[in-house]
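Lab channel / #folding
Pinned by the channel admin:
"Please post every new chain as: sequence first, then the structure tokens as a reply. Keep commentary short and put observations after the output so the thread stays searchable."

First post following the new format, from NK:
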Amino acid sequence: MFLTLLLVTFLVALAVSGLVARGFDRPIGSILGRIIADDISAGWQRFVRFALLVVGISGGVRIYELERYIDPERTAALALTTERWVLEVYRTVIETLQSLAWALLVFFMFALLAYVIVRRGEIRREVVERDIAASKPLI
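Reply from TO:
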């Protein structure tokens, strides 16, 4: 019964992570395309998608919590009733979403910082180009 619970929580965490990663794929791609502006942004987008899957699964499948069902030395072994199943699946969904929210928050904070740096460089380049164009004599 424990192995079934482990498999179910893994599959639920994988499904939730996949849906979230797919939902944020386009915004992440456009942000990385704007910041990096090279073919390498596609590779980084794949890495971020993979990282979201790993973070979501590791946050959703809580191995130490699931050990309560098989390790009688730590605590009294809990019975896997229908109510426990529902609770564990619900916890898996919530913990997966929470882990993904933190990962996306960190990503978007760094992306915002990178965007500000890139935009500042673009503005400086535009000012220099405008000054050079204004200083050329008209003949």
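NK: The mean pLDDT is 88.
TO: also worth noting, The radius of gyration is 24 Å.
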